[in-house]
């Protein structure tokens, strides 16, 4: 059965637009069916750990003196926050009919935006912010001053949960959905302990340290540089030399010289370059107190095996000379550093790894902190998953649940392979998206898609790993500045990339699994902003979208784009 929901009559918008504008109305049937199922699923999946927490553990948010968000008071925000938003995260799940798109009721614009483009500001979701303030979390005053100067006045929920845990020296796995502020969730407690903004220590109680005190590892240059910029922003212009990038593709000898000259306290880099410089004896990390693996599930994959092994063996580990450390082996040396593992998708393999490296490791999520020892393989998945799947796949599926921001809308449409680019164009027009990231699985066809989009009057640019470091950063700069409407890219951009203005993600090739879907989708809807994800596939692939919908526990609705409008179909078998 075909449904066209809530169309605004052409005449209504005739003055504002040359095209008619389509408003998607009530998504209730899908939400009612899928969301309670997802949340029930979530609760059961983690019930084992909750029981342990209730019965034995003293480690709860309350015990860490983190307040509940119930009495959240709206605060004046800086320019980044975009003002208050009436509907909270909870209300996004409510049964109230909702006009979905942030993209609705806007005048149409030409396909070829003039440069520079004046972009709409997407509102962030205030419900994402925690009840506690940075002061309540015990951050040092100098650091809070710097945050305020950057317009950051309240922590997000995952920051509220993580900061006390890391400050209490726990090893931690931080899991929270894409765009929820995980970077500052680990950077702020680290910068409270090291560098010029750290908290004042009582006299005689100060540990004397020198050299690099924190190492942050990220899987791509782009993500590495993004983290560097975040640290620089907090340290301020006078101290930004205290963070050093060690990303691949950049000049290695210059990086080595900077290490010698600037004496950084924190380095951020990709696994290959960090381990290369470390192996050459140019990176002294034995005094290091913090090791962060951002996008840990990707870093622990086979591709990074050797480099990650070296990093884990060397960072924060003094050469073992004493007889006791010899007897106790790795356990004795492990305590020298705090290990923090971060991702929106945390499969059980990461939990297992964290247990073996950490002491008192905990899993930190937006509203809960549980000891890792209490977590078991998520049994309920066995009955929920595909009966033909084996357990590692289930672990991956479990990882993807709760990784998606609740503010996202998901659709898929089917078309013939040679009509895909035209569907992209129609989709962008119908949704009136301004900043679009289109994902493909391979590098080669990217250029062709860019060419075809440009030929159809849509400014597009490609980004992939075969471009040099400089070219990659230029492409990103231009895209962020609004010079291009569509970034056509591959898996390289799926993780961590923070482009708050991105209002539409398109899968021009289907992602390989639900974890990849979650990270691609997470490039839009950052910090609770509105965002739409559209997957374009061939008819024969539609079953994959239905499978992903089940695995992710979100409604991915079938649709088509015709005459400048999105038409949403009802699918009888939506569960
Ligand atoms: N407390 C805060 N107040 C306002 N903005 C914030 C706050 N914390 C983070 N942000 C902003 O939110 C955006 C998303 O943060 P971040 O990139 O850390 O998300 P993430 O959870 O790591 O996402 P991903 O899983 O995709 O890597 C960034 O633009 C960041 O500057």
Automatic annotation (TrEMBL):
The keyword Cell inner membrane does not apply. Its EC number is 3.6.4.13. Residues 163-364 form the Helicase ATP-binding domain. A motif (Q motif) lies at residues 132-160. It holds the Pfam family Helicase_C. Residues 132-160 form the DEAD-box RNA helicase Q domain. The keyword Repeat does not apply. Residues 423-567 form the Helicase C-terminal domain. Residues 72-96 are annotated as: Disordered. One of its GO terms (molecular function) is RNA binding. Keywords: ATP-binding, Helicase, Hydrolase, Nucleotide-binding. It catalyses: ATP + H2O = ADP + phosphate + H(+). Gene3D superfamilies: P-loop containing nucleotide triphosphate hydrolases (3.40.50.300). It comes from the Eukaryota. This is RNA helicase. It comes from Triticum turgidum subsp. durum (Durum wheat).
